[in-house]
Amino acid sequence: MLKRMIIPLLFGLGGIAILVSLGLWQIQRLAGKEAMLADIDARIVGDPTELPATADPERERYLPVAATGTITSDEVHVLVSVKRRGAGYRVISAFETDGRRVLLDRGFIPTDQKDASRPAVEAEIMGNLHWPDEIDSYTPEPDTTRDIWFARDVPALATALEAEPLLIVLRETSEMNSPVSPLPVDTSTIPNDHLQYAITWFSLAALWMGMTLYLLWRIRRRTI
Predict the structure, then answer these.
(1) Contact between residue 53 and residue 129 where contact means Cβ atoms under 8 Å apart
(2) For residues 59 and 170, is the Cβ–Cβ distance under 8 A?
(3) Whole-angstrom distance, CA of residue 67 vs CA of residue 50
(4) Residue 143's beta-bridge partner residues?
(5) What is the topology of this protein in the membrane according to its UniProt annotation (predicted)?
(6) Tens-digit pLDDT profile for the chain (224 aa)?
(7) Which of 124, 119, 130, 107 is nearest to 183 (CA)?
(8) Which of 62, 60, 36, 83 is nearest to 191 (CA)?
């Protein structure tokens, strides 16, 4: 009987060990991801600085900045859906400050406000530099006829608005009664699924253990 059980037992223990190790690996990755997100959160709300003369997308991603200038009426609209608000657009405007013209993500407007007039306004702004990763092989090309974009493609937006490829995502503004609701940068869009993956691997390990025990029980019954 023991000879008939040894191979299923070893196979079962090997499978359990592999699945448990994968679960533990995901727990380790979860700890690392949470530490990274905490670091990004702290960086986002840090003390703002002036706009850098040149910006590195890796080094200055999420850098808090402050500037005073003109939010121009030159803008494009990026289709977006916001939880509990529904479909609408991000308003990406050209922002002029200290002889420079950069991009400003002002935030959200409902679909029926897309063609409303938003005149140029002087404002003090605070926000974060960002280079969103929103483009893949399924992203449609902008519909320039209707001025509808489907992703924040910083270089393309800069070309369209004749600005530097530098995007500030608005957090605060001195505007009174701004027609646009800011959508500040946060870490909610950064995927962190490691806990779910760990639960999946541990569940599979428990299932594998149950199947192994059942198989050993069947072998034992047949040999009695």
Answers:
(1) no
(2) no
(3) 7
(4) 148
(5) Multi-pass membrane protein
(6) 566 778 878 888 999 999 999 999 999 999 998 988 888 888 888 899 999 988 888 889 999 999 999 999 999 999 999 888 899 999 999 999 999 999 999 999 999 999 999 999 999 999 999 999 888 889 999 998 999 999 999 999 999 999 999 999 999 999 988 999 999 998 877 788 999 999 999 999 999 999 988 888 887 777 65
(7) 107
(8) 36
Exposure string for 149-178, b = 16+ CB within 10 A, e = fewer: bbbbbbebbbebbebbbbbbbbbebebeeb
Strands 100-110 and 167-173: parallel
Backbone angles phi, psi at 157, to 5 degrees: -65, -40
CA 136 to chain centre: 14
Return d(Cα 50, Cα 102) in angstroms, integer: 13
**How far apart are alpha carbons 164 and 100 in whole angstroms?**
8
Q: Which of 118, 182, 120, 111 is nearest to 146 (CA)?
A: 111
What CA–CA distances, in Å, run from 108 to 78, 85, 104, 115, 134?
A: 9, 10, 12, 13, 17
- Do 163 and 112 meet the contact criterion of CB atoms below 8 Å apart? no
Here the tokens at position 69 are 């200038």
Cα-based angle 109, 112, 114 (whole degrees, multiple of 5) = 55
Q: 């380790």: which residue's tokens?
A: 28
